[in-house]
Design a protein that fits this description.
This protein is mainly alpha-helical. The chain has 14 helices and no strands. The longest helix has about 35 residues.
Length: about 350
């Protein structure tokens, strides 16, 4: 009985800290979402933002003392954009965290491993060459195929170059990323010049094309794949220790690692299809989260999703306001922040 009491006493502070982290995180997410919808070339007061949201949820709940133009800006443009930022930020963050576990490499990231480049290649191929042969699902489908193809190429190159160790896999990913992006540039060069300007969106990253009707796709993929990763959090914990330890625990190491890569490719491909290439979110957020909640992936994955959503919201706020009324591509903002973080991480964990 005394031992059980000591265990409860030991675990309680961790649970309390986790609950506090989630509580503060959801408050920060709500405030960030509100600010993201409020600010821009046309500022909308926060009470108006909340009033429009309340009226959309329960018509007539609040007296509509705002113009139709403001309502269109808030509901049709900014809310879908902010929600897409949350979905993309959360998705990229959990992919980065999962890849860092199965590769045991703190530098693993869907951008650095070439997965984002593969997704962009597939999206560009659909937009400029194949056409929308399955309707609106064509671009997400082709982006996933491209991301999965890039993932398999990275694994193949690492085997061919005898770079199977965790600390060299990221180098194979960087090499494949350059190759795939060169292929994407060839597709742009051979494509219709009148349509090429639309492809710049996928090259630089942006959330300006968000629409309510399309948010269901990244939402479903994030929920389904995120649930799979969280259900296998104990396996991810074991993989961080080493393949030998994971094998002794009955985990099929090779198959599980490949499955995580495929799931990561699916999330990344769909996110890239709607947001373009947004780098370094999956690199930065998991490291920050582990400093807060420790290394247990039962906590790392959900908190990473929460922090990734908040981070990308604020990156988008900066992108929309620093040169208003023009938008800076959000990939430039995350690349600037992530590049500095990457240098710090290299110094802390030299290859």
């Amino acid at each position: 009985m005394d031992q059980a009491d000591r265990q409860i006493t030991t675990l309680s502070p961790h649970k309390a800290r986790l609950r506090l982290t989630f509580g503060l995180g959801f408050v920060a997410l709500f405030l960030s979402l509100s600010v993201a919808v409020s600010v821009g070339a046309v500022s909308v007061p926060l009470p108006t933002v909340w009033g429009i949201l309340a009226n959309k949820i329960a018509p007539g709940l609040v007296t509509a003392d705002w113009s139709a133009g403001r309502e269109a800006i808030v509901w049709d443009i900014r809310f879908p954009r902010a929600i897409l930022a949350c979905l993309v930020g959360a998705g990229l963050a959990i992919v980065g965290a999962s890849l860092q576990a199965v590769t045991r490499n703190p530098l693993a990231d869907p951008h650095l491993l070439g997965i984002s480049a593969g997704g962009a290649f597939g999206a560009i191929l659909a937009l400029l060459h194949t056409g929308l042969f399955i309707g609106l699902l064509t671009v997400p489908f082709m982006a996933f195929i491209g991301a999965l193809g890039a993932t398999l190429i990275v694994l193949g190159v690492s085997q061919f170059a005898s770079a199977t160790s965790a600390d060299r896999l990221v180098l194979a990913g960087v090499a494949v990323s350059f190759i795939v992006m060169s292929g994407a540039n060839v597709l742009i060069f051979l494509g219709d010049p009148r349509a090429v300007h639309t492809v710049v969106f996928w090259m630089l990253g942006g959330l300006g094309l968000a629409q309510w009707s399309q948010l269901i796709y990244p939402l479903v993929i994030l929920l389904a794949c995120g649930a799979y990763l969280w259900a296998n959090a104990s396996n991810l914990n074991a993989m961080t220790v080493g393949d030998e330890t994971a094998s002794t625990l009955g985990i099929p190491v090779g198959r599980f690692r490949l499955t995580v890569f495929v799931v990561g490719a699916m999330i990344t491909g769909v996110m890239v299809a709607f947001s373009g290439i947004i780098g370094f979110v999956g690199l930065m957020i998991p490291h920050i989260v582990r400093l807060i909640v420790g290394g247990d992936y039962r906590r790392v994955l959900p908190v990473s999703a929460l922090c990734g959503a908040i981070f990308l919201l604020w990156a988008d706020i900066f992108a929309r306001t620093v040169m208003a009324p023009d938008d800076i591509p959000i990939g430039i903002v995350t690349g600037l922040i992530g590049g500095v973080f990457f240098v710090w991480l290299l110094r802390r964990n030299p290859i």
